[in-house]
Design goal:
The protein is about 40% helix and about 20% strand. It has 8 helices and 5 strands. Helix 4 packs antiparallel against helix 5.
Amino acid sequence: MKQRKRRKFKRAGKFWVYIVECCDGTFYTGYTPNVEKRLELHNNGKGAKYTRDRRPVELVWSKEYKYFKKAFLMEKRIKGLTREQKEKLVGGKRLDKVLAEASGRQACGVNVAQQDLPRGGADTAAKCSRVYIKTFGCKMAAMLHTDFTIVG
C-alpha cells in the first residue's frame, strides 16, 4: 500500500478570519491562509457546505493574524456573535468593541451583576479583581480597582 506524504502544517505566517455575505443575505465566517483562493473556492461550490447553495458570496470583512491558533479561536468567537453584532463588525466597528459588547462588558471596564459579586459586596469585589479579570478578560480592571460597575 502506497503511503501518502504528509505536508507539514504551517502554524505561523498569515492567517485570515473572514466573513462573506451569501446571496441570500446570510453571513458565513471562516479562517484561511489565503483569502482570495478561499473566496474562489466558495464561489465555485468547493468551499464550505453552507455556502454551496448560497452562491455567489462576497467578502465583506477580514482580519489578518500571525498565528493559526489565534485565527482559529477568533473564528469561533465571531461565529458565536449574533447577526446584529456581525453587521456592526461588517459596518466598520472595531472587533474588540463588538466582542466587548457581546460579552456584556464595556471595552474599557467590567460590568458585574450584583449576583456575580462574592460575599461581601463591592468592597470584596475590588480585592477579588483577579477573579474578574480571569472571568471577563479585561486587563484594565487590574490597574483600576474602581472600574467595576455594579449593575442590577
